[in-house]
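Structure first, sequence second, as always.
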């Protein structure tokens, strides 16, 4: 419990600092460090727009699970999944249902600092039982919460390669888990051979402007704060690797393996639906783009060339971390807008990917 309280103090300190800070940490701009990139609409950027089909599948999963809204009414997909401009028309095809075909092993990879609260809750913990009852093989790789992506890449490789044979790997990643996993695939060809797909849920694919937002002493304090379940990293490595300049440069130099199909699920919420602990971070990001989840801009959460599944109406934690179900009052107080049908979301993701791969990515 002490580690959870320390985690709460850490986030509270960050939030308090942000509310009064007047001098932010900004890396100097040098031309040789700038990776050319462009923000372009999904329809004309080499991405595959899978929003309509994902909505159909998510709607059927919500109905089959009997999900209810806060008012007790059947959960409406339009309330939990944003319908943005340009979403294609529905396909009209029925969704896959029933038990797993046994072709894939679902492997969840969490994000920054997730290790620090792993005693109380883990990413998509509330979805595991349902998927296992449907016959899906489920695994969880607890990466190091305060280590760089390059370090976690080796950790992911070793953990994945030690899993039982049978069924290709379907990585479902959250936050920093996305770049950690992409680095693992770029670094280890044998892991690529075992992997069918990677899904980024609110993934810090391009990093986050927040990695540039604080003075160095604050990062140093966060790294050195004693958390028994979350050993410190080497200096500020975990945050440094989330600089947008670092991530964009890495993506430019490391083409993603063509044999691995990628999917993206960027979340965002309105300010009034943002948990208390994320509000200061949301406000900083809103200066660049209000379409953010309190930690990552939506435009930074999409893997290049991936299939766009949709935009969950949730903040960065609510979309993947069941903090509302954790036996930890501190976390519940900090993350007070955490309710979301995560189990249905993950089931819809897995069913979409399973169908898409069986259809050869058409």
């Amino acid at each position: 419990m002490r580690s959870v309280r320390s985690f709460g103090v850490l986030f509270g300190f960050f939030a308090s600092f942000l509310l009064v800070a007047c001098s932010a940490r900004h890396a100097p701009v040098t031309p040789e460090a700038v990776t050319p990139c462009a923000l372009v609409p999904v329809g004309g950027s080499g991405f595959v727009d899978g929003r309509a089909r994902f909505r159909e599948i998510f709607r059927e999963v919500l109905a089959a699970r009997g999900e209810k809204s806060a008012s007790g009414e059947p959960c409406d997909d339009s309330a939990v999944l944003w319908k943005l401009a340009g979403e294609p028309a529905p396909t009209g095809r029925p969704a896959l249902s029933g038990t797993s075909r046994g072709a894939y092993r679902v492997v969840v990879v969490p994000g920054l600092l997730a290790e620090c609260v792993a005693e109380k809750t883990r990413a998509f913990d509330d979805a595991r039982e349902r998927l296992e009852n449907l016959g899906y093989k489920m695994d969880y790789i607890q990466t190091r919460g305060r280590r760089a992506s390059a370090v976690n890449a080796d950790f992911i490789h070793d953990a994945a390669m030690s899993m039982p044979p049978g069924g290709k790997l379907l990585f479902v990643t959250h936050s920093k888990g996305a770049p950690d996993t992409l680095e693992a695939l770029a670094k280890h060809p044998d892991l690529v051979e075992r992997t069918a797909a990677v899904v980024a849920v609110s993934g810090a694919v391009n990093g986050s402007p927040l990695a540039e937002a604080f003075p160095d002493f604050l990062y140093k304090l966060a790294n050195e704060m004693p958390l028994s379940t979350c050993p410190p990293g080497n200096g500020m490595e975990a945050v440094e690797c989330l600089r947008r300049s670092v991530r964009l440069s890495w993506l430019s130099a490391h083409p993603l393996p063509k044999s691995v199909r990628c999917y993206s699920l960027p979340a965002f919420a309105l300010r009034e639906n943002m948990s208390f602990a994320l509000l200061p971070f949301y406000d900083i990001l809103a200066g660049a783009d209000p379409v953010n989840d309190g930690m990552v801009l939506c435009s930074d959460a999409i893997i290049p060339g991936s299939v766009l599944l949709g935009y969950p109406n949730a903040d960065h934690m609510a979309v993947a971390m069941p903090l509302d179900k954790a036996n930890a009052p501190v976390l519940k107080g900090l993350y007070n807008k955490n309710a979301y049908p995560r189990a249905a979301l993950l089931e819809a993701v897995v069913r979409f990917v399973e169908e898409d791969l069986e259809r050869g990515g058409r």
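Margin note: The chain has 13 helices and nine strands.
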